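Researcher: I'm comparing several assemblies side by side, and this is the next one on my list. It has 356 residues spread over two chains. Same procedure as the others: predict the full complex and return the structure.
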Amino acid sequence: MEASKYLKRYFKVQRNEMLALFKITEKVPVQFDPSMGLEELREIHKKGIEEYRKLRENFELEAINALAHKNASDRLLLLTEIFLKHPKANSSLLDLKVAIVDRIMENCHCCGWSCGVNRKTGEKGFCRLTDLSNYASEFLHMGEEPELIPSHKIFLRAVLLPVSTARTGISPPVLKQEPKSNPENLQS
Amino acid sequence: MHRARNVNFVTPTPHTHTVLKIIREIFVNTPVIWNSNMYHSPDIAEILEGIVDIYLGDFKYGNNVCAQKYSQIKRYLEVVQPNFEFAYETAEVLIRHLVLPGHLECCTSKIGEWVAKKIPHIRFNLMFQYHPCYQALEYPELGRQLTPEERAKAIYIVRKTGIEDLLI
């Protein structure tokens, strides 16, 4: 099996030579009030993203230098120093993203259907979901592309493209929200 | 999860709020995979920058007519193409395309050409395991598996577009 040519950053994260992107987002401090309007929150997000991009580039440049060291323990030490130099922010860009999506659900336009319903008050659009997420299953999956396995897969329940033909032919899409045995409420 | 190489969210779009809250609680440095049909809104696309490491995106149809016919979905390409482009700019992308019988020219070929032109440096998984089920029999043209000739032709078509990182 040929190794993938274009998932280089992904492999670096697995070797702890680079941070997963959300780990960078967590380090970007932003000030906001969740009660602000959606547009105002998005403006703050736009500025936060600029900071995130700078920080990401910075990490990548510094990591290249660290990786040039021949000694493996030196490399690890340097990388750890680089990544720890910026602490996790108390109020971060990740927190802001959570707040924005929370507002998007009030006039839901998460997907291409843009139904505009308020899922927080129990209204349902095309996906027939409120703000409660059920998951169908969760396990260590071996049936993915070779570079992805083993993969901690979390199957959330929803149908957006009611495909007449399931992808693998094993599981037909479920058009009604009918929780299987013991659905877990991920929000509690 | 012990031994996992990543965390992989399936059908994440309408659950973005929950997915973000789960990610916020992850302590370890692990790549986040967005296992999706890529039919999300521009607002959600913006939110996903700085969250998703790999977009594991299905690219099913090469035109809106087939998308409307088999998935009753509107503006398929207008929604998914900008999402693939933005994903390409901000993270890494692994496309899955399941070849449908009789849809080599209108879907497989069109998708391959677009990818080669717009987002060439991606991993492309060309899949052949189409098996008619569920409502597929309402569409007689989809009521069969691929022929070996179609399979060979699909590989030929995608190779010809110049896509380099092809998983077959």
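Model: For your comparison table: Confidence is low (pLDDT under 50) at residues 164-188 of chain A.
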